[in-house]
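Sequence in, structure out. Go.
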Amino acid sequence: MRRESSNREQARGCEVGPPGFRRCGVPTEGLPARASIERLLDDGTWQEIAGPVGYQPPQGWVGHWASLALSPDEETILARWSGECESSMAFFVPAKGGSPRPVTGERDLSKAPESSPIGWAEDGRARVRLFQGGCGLGATKPGVYLIDPHTNRATLVRAARIQVLYGKSGDCPLSGWYRLCLNTRDGRDHPSIERQLANGRWRRITGPPRPSQSGIPYGQWGLALDSPDGKTLLAQWEHPCDSAHAFFIPFAGGRPRVVTGERDWRKAPVSYVLGWSRDGRARVRIHHGGDCGGGTFSRPGVYLIDPLTGDATFVRPLNRQEGG
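Output:
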């Protein structure tokens, strides 16, 4: 296993996960980075517990680890690999290190169906969606399953409806105290972020970021993080072109506001969420516009951005792995 000092987090382009874990190596368009999952050790250093999936070392498949969820017994991570063709595959990763295993148990990843993690059940089984078709093989019976991380035994909870794989709110992947829902209806996406209330119910915080013209953009919310003062949500909108934009959203709910300040987020530079600083500023990675964005940031790099004033402080340039 490879250890890495925590003060190199900025240079690695790592993003936060469950407490004590992080995912690193999110690629930029045309420049895949080596993806990894890392665990924080008692001495403050980070240990890699899983690298990229696939057959093409050192890169593996083109893609990155998109979400992590720790099991109730803290022995297994339920992780989502986001790959080419906007595909998704759910994996079990030993929390202390080991090879990622597709939740459906196949040794040959090319034979595994496309899948997406939802979260953990109280009995320690993973709640996962299996899809029909996509970029990989289709599931024999697509739907929502409970899968034992030790035996890979899968129990069907509900068969998927035609063209509605995210129809019920209970199928939303978790991100801390939030859940990120696609809510597919009539073949179109209506993604939302919902926050869990003290009574256990869920409240809708926001829908998709709206373009300046009519229409709903294709994409989904991939990450949601509370600010230190609990007043603002830092969220990442992921969309085609292997791209993303970071947004500020009021804790009580409201319209998403792209962190770089543009009124039309489609004209904003590509940006990725890295987390919050202790003084309450958002830490984001900003790229050149290119075909997937625009904006006036002439100097790509990592910035600290005040959610109240929009003031951006340059921290460092992007390294080669990040597209610098």
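Check: The chain has a mean pLDDT of 76. The first helix runs from residue 9 to 12.
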